[in-house]
């Protein structure tokens, strides 16, 4: 069941209020789940129940995505604003330093939360920010084309396409290795989420100059990459490992850019293993 929470964030314009939608289930140490640009919290649904068996799982719609409200006028969608805002969100929910797992944009935000001591462990699935300029241009052009296609497609046509495996592949084959396995309802919902994302352009603009260049020391970090990622190519994982040398680099066989649907059991195991390693470090 989706709920909302309002909280105060710091911004270059001073304190401002933000309202974010989230789903919460399970019990145990808190685990925050962050989706990618143009997506929504439902991206995590294939793994939420598995994770909730061990954790208090909080999946959020990032500001300006899903059904969350956009950031207040003039507040930037940059890393230095959004990552601390997620810390403020956690505080509003009574959570301190959760484990954080993120995909794409969410993976970049998870790493930044770890860097600024807002996370107790980080799992980053195909995180943004480790690209060359050419790779960034390719990824952004692909995202803009996907967004344009989502906006141009009337809903009746979208629903017709979603009913066939070929249609689901045409709509979401860029981000999934196995798009035909997606349900028609999920494909329609995520295409509408991409179409209606109020924070899309500002997030993309803020990301144009982003490179993640800092280490994330002192906590468990896993960087995982799908072998069939067509948006952020898997060689970027090698650069990520060079940037965060203490991270565990994991290969996700036959997974695309959004691997939670392609192999839920594997992705859940990667997230849980990362969180469990916190206890091992503490015991040591």
What does the model show?
α1 packs parallel to α11 and α2 (79-92) crosses α3. β5 (99-103), α3 (105-115) and β6 (121-125) form a beta-alpha-beta unit. Helix content is 43%, strand content 18%. The protein has 11 helices and 8 strands. The longest helix has 20 residues, at 133-152. The chain is of the alpha/beta class and 284 residues long.
What would you say about this model in short?
By secondary structure, the protein is an alpha/beta fold. It has helices at residues 45-52, 79-92, 105-115, 133-152, 155-162, 165-172, 184-196, 200-207, 236-243, 259-262, 264-283; strands at residues 3-9, 16-25, 29-34, 55-60, 99-103, 121-125, 221-226, 248-252.
What labels would you give this structure?
284 residues
Number of helices: 11
| Biggest pleated-sheet summary | 8 strands, mixed
Q: Runs with pLDDT <50, length 5+?
A: none
Q: How do the helices and strands follow one another from N- to C-terminus?
A: EEEHEHEHEHHHHHEHEHH
Q: Could you give the order of strands across the largest sheet?
A: 1-2-4-3-5-6-7-8
User: Would you tell me the overall average pLDDT?
Assistant: 96
Number of beta strands: 8
Structural class: alpha/beta
Show the helix and strand layout.
Layout lengths: L2 E7 L6 E10 L3 E6 L10 H8 L2 E6 L18 H14 L6 E5 L1 H11 L5 E5 L7 H20 L2 H8 L2 H8 L11 H13 L3 H8 L13 E6 L9 H8 L4 E5 L6 H4 L1 H20 L1
Parallel strand pairs: 3-4, 3-5, 5-6, 6-7, 7-8
Antiparallel strand pairs: 1-2, 2-4
